[in-house]
């Protein structure tokens, strides 16, 4: 009897990640991953107790993947870059975007460090240096809500002809920042 093929955790996660990119996160099954690897299910169960644990690792990989988008999108305007990276990810990986954002996802937990990381990036943006962390948080939240909605439209090809998603995002960003500056000065909006 030939020895069983062994696979590392990373190899198994890679296979599951590839399935998620092609078919969505909820298409990942132990059997499908085994087929992708040309193996039985046994080596997968050596590394993971169940499909939920494997999917949790795939979600971590997706976050790492989306962080790479943010690093690539480095224009010196971090606030702009966060939005553009989100839009690009949604356009290029609509299935992953849908599963991560538009469906109830028990594998996602709100990560306060993620928001704090975005705030730290925003503080390096020349246009935002005069805002405190407390003032930056609602700016980020409003832009995040808007950008996710715009990303849904872009991912589904629903943006009206003649509109550019990045230009729409930049225009809205300027409006949100201008309104925050008015609030900061005590002016009525």
TrEMBL record:
Cross-referenced Gene3D superfamilies: Tetracycline Repressor, domain 2
Keyword line: DNA-binding
Record-linked PROSITE patterns: HTH_TETR_2 (PS50977)
Domain HTH tetR-type residue range list: 6-66
DNA-binding annotation, residue ranges on this chain: 29-48
Entry GO MF terms: DNA binding
The name this protein goes by in its record: TetR/AcrR family transcriptional regulator
